[in-house]
Amino acid sequence: xxxxxxxxxxxxxxxxxxxxxxxxxxxxxxxxxxxxxxxxxxxxxxxxxxxxxxxxxxxxxxxxxxxxxxxxxxxxxxxxxxxxxxxxxxxxxxxxxxxxxxxxxxxx
Length: 108
Fold this sequence. Notes:
Elements: E1 3-10, H1 12-20, H2 25-35, E2 39-45, E3 52-57, H3 61-72, E4 77-85, H4 91-99
Antiparallel strand pairs: 1-3, 1-4, 2-3
């Protein structure tokens, strides 16, 4: 099953609402992933450029897109980005396929 990481930053008003009424966010994200036929592997809050990250799996990219649309349409994030994660052992087959492709860079 494809695995994804979402990096996010909450809006100020979201952080205020969370402070005023703390809730179990990992459970909410886990329930969302499960409703899409997937799982939540990890949910972390952090300091720095992002407020947190979630690592999750769903069966395909259409469900991943639906997951992201559902989350971002809530309006609670100032930034939300998602990337598919590739296991390290998949890189050699990807590189082999890339070596067989033809590409003409701009200006050539």
